[in-house]
Request: fold
Amino acid sequence: MKLSRRGLLQGAAAVGSLWAVGCASTKGARQSGEAPPQAAPREGKRILILGGTGFLGPQLVEAARSRGHTVTLFNRGKTRPQLFPDVEKLQGDRDPKNGEGLKALEGRKWDAVIDTSGYVPRIAKASAELLAPNVGHYVFISTISVYKELPRPGMDESAPLATVEDPTTESVREHYGALKALCEQAVEAAFPGRTTHIRPGLIVGPDDATQRFTYWPVRVAEGGEVLAPPGSDPAQFIDARDLAQWTLLTIENRDFGTFNATGPARPLAMRELLEACKQASGSNATFTWADAAFLEKHKVRPWMDLPVWVPAQGEMAGMSSVSNAKAMARGLKFRPVVDTARDTLTWFNGLPPERQAELRKRAGLPAEREREVLAAWHQEQGGAAKAG
Reply:
């Protein structure tokens, strides 16, 4: 089953809401293997985070506080309000049409705002225009899905953006990338020359409720024969903790502009990713590297059934090879993949069994389905397994 842009973006829109309700574990201590935070600035900044209690949000809060900044959170107070009891919290709604809307932000001043929850241009425009007179720097967490096409490896921030025929639509599931692009434009119009647009790809690590990366360290830790996509195909993602640290760095350095924020630092193949997962768990897993044609024939979907993987040919061939050179030149750094895999596995194993079962349903092949596909592979190969 080929991966289409439409299918990918609908999936991205669907899991975007999951990031907002992810099962965070924010106790203040760094995870094992976590890269130490970069040096704190000489003078702390006052930072407003729109959101702050989902997947990336708590990492931003922890990173900001570790670097000497003062944080204020603005959200509806519905998602884990018990987090960060010592952080100032303002309650309201991103949508000015709902209840008190943005009223709690009126007249307040901050050095910078980080927008982790902007999906609809009208709503992003409202917050940006209200904050513009009293905030110096607007950081918008966008996505590489804003690009019109991703057919070629190495695409950078100058690539054309996705568009939508009706710019007033608020159907995020149907027009995720195009609406994110319009959000960027709305923020830029309110903060001309004072914006940072950060375009991550797949955000991964502990607390990720989407299962879009977690599937691999968990499945590999279980051992045995693992169905895997072509080992030479590229993989790209960023640990939420690395993204958070660098986001704060852009504020400290006042780095305005647009940046692709995905990693790692050098090209990574699926084979290397899965071997890192094996190293992280010390399992006895072996990998059966099926080719893309076989997987398509047996309706094994890239990205959903085999997470992280996007075929190296086709409409989305460049999705896992986006250029991050601009961000790396401005200090973006990445921890070892094995550390992300180990910490993700440790987090998952610490969840209640019912929560683990729930997450397993969100992405990845169910065990029975994997066995069926592996049996078909061996039958078609005449019993000669291509295991590594």
Observations:
- Residues 14-41 have pLDDT under 50 and may be disordered.
